[in-house]
Amino acid sequence: MPGLRAKLRVLMQANLRGERGEAAPSIRRAGADVAALRQQIARALDDEDRLQQTIQAAAAQIAALDQQADEALSRGDEATARHLVGQLQRRRQQLAFLEADLAQHRYVTADLMRRVNTLEALVAQAQQSVAQGEAPDEDTVPLAERIRQARAEIARRVETLRTAETAPADDALDEQAVEDDLARRRARLSQ
User: Fold this and answer.
1) What are the domain boundaries of the chain?
2) Is 1.10.1660 the CATH number for 27-190?
């Protein structure tokens, strides 16, 4: 059956080449998919920047609450100081969650960038093979499937990160922590 093998090889090469010897539509589509993945990564980096700005704003709020609590204690307003320290404690908890989310976001984004770089190299290799009139390597055959999986993984991870950013923080407040904070402030301010 050498004739059948030769025909199959010709058909496979015809699928990889356009009528004018251009890269096959599937390889062009793979290149477009990689570009779309790069855009998703750019959006993830933008989300990371917004999260970093949120963290900076939370840190500024914490500093302001800390100063306001000290001022309230200095003027003897125990109730206001207690309220401000409670807010301070909650905001510190939220800040800890935001920082953990940012660390996770950075890790996931770096992993996605690595995966897209790998896919981009595979697309370039497939395009080079087609340009030289060669049959694709065995590794490039599942290229479209790898890109589809990478897009799904990126979309899933970005959505997970976005829902983590908007998840409400637990408002449970440890009254003992508030009392301990107030005691430390009183001791510091009395000196």
Assistant:
1) 27-190
2) no
